[in-house]
Amino acid sequence: MNERSDFEDRLRQARTRQGLDKRPAGRGSLPPGPWGIGLRAGVEVVSALVVGIGFGFVLDRWLGTWPWLFLVFFVLGSASGVLNVYRLFNPRKTPRAN
Amino acid sequence: MAAEGKTIDALSQFELSPVLGVFGDAVSFSQSNLMMLVAVLITFLLMKLTADRGELVPGRLQALGEASYSFIAGMVRDQVGDEGKKYFPFVFSIFMFVLLGNLLGMVPYSFTFTSHIMVTLTLAIVVFLVVTCVALAIHGMHFFTYFFPEGAPKWLAPIIIPVEIISYFSRVVSLSVRLFANMVAGHVMLKVFATFVVLLGGLGAIGPFVAAMPLAVNVVLVGFEFLVAFLQAYVFAILTSIYLHDAVHLH
């Protein structure tokens, strides 16, 4: 009996590996550790802010509305920085098996 | 090089200079480009030797090639799912290029091409464009619903959509800055402590004993840098596959 369930187990693993069965849902993440998470969160916030400021700057140069769009996109950039950090800890839920 | 005029010159190691004599001068072929070619060549030879022999009991070289292959294949399968198999060559190329760039930088008198923001930014833009094109090819116009999560109140759209778009574009910056900053910081630290060894070593009788301390720090740092070289290549590859997952599955 034991031998048989062992065989079933290995068969299931092999089938999953070859893509014949749906693999269990689940999404890996970056290696944990306080330094890794801290640095990654910092980079995420700063990069969102940089992109926001860049967008505002370019749009202002183009439309001649300095400094209003810059200010708006500064706020939006900080908001998406917070969103990035939120995503870092709560990745988008993905209904894998559909 | 390091301790000229008793100053610490930690940044000159990142300067580009033409190599290969007249030819290098003519087309601005720098040591960075040379290292990129070396990285591509090493990857190619490793894969070729691994695939050519294909022994049942792998030798050292074949084991290395197969380990790197199955490492990335497993990562893509875990992150993207079974649909992700066709993106394996892309992720694998990116991973090997970044990894060899980081590791070649650890060879003395070599050059770390991943320590230039322009190189990492180009890699990140390539990843970004590929991911966006994959998403557009699979989902078509439906892709743009990515920027507005289902179930959010409609009147929040003017706020949510720009925030999501900025967040999407910030991937390029975070991907490139992370790799670039890690490589630059590591190599600057190595250079600074190496300069300390030289400066303290010239302090007369007690010099060699005091200089042993920064030397010990440098020994530790070199080991740490090898860890960072692997880790940053891993992070670059896994983020690429996470973005591919988002592109394939949307939400």
TrEMBL record, chain A:
Residues 1-24 have a biased composition (Basic and acidic residues). Keywords: Membrane, Transmembrane, Transmembrane helix. This is AtpZ/AtpI family protein. The chain crosses the membrane at residues 37-59, 65-86. It comes from Neoroseomonas marina. Residues 1-34 are annotated as: Disordered. Pfam families: ATPase_gene1 (PF09527).
Automatic annotation (TrEMBL), chain B:
PROSITE patterns: ATPASE_A. It is found in: Cell membrane; Membrane. GO terms for cellular component: plasma membrane; proton-transporting ATP synthase complex. It holds the Pfam family ATP-synt_A. It is a multi-pass membrane protein. GO terms for molecular function: proton-transporting ATP synthase activity, rotational mechanism. InterPro entries: ATP_synth_F0_asu (IPR000568), ATP_synth_F0_asu_AS (IPR023011), ATP_synth_F0_asu_bact/mt (IPR045083), F0_ATP_A_sf (IPR035908). The chain crosses the membrane at residues 87-105, 117-139, 159-180, 192-213, 219-244. Keywords: ATP synthesis, Cell membrane, CF(0), Hydrogen ion transport, Ion transport, Membrane, Transmembrane, Transmembrane helix, Transport. Belongs to the ATPase A chain family. Key component of the proton channel; it plays a direct role in the translocation of protons across the membrane. PANTHER family: ATP SYNTHASE SUBUNIT A (PTHR11410:SF0). This is ATP synthase subunit a. The gene is atpB.
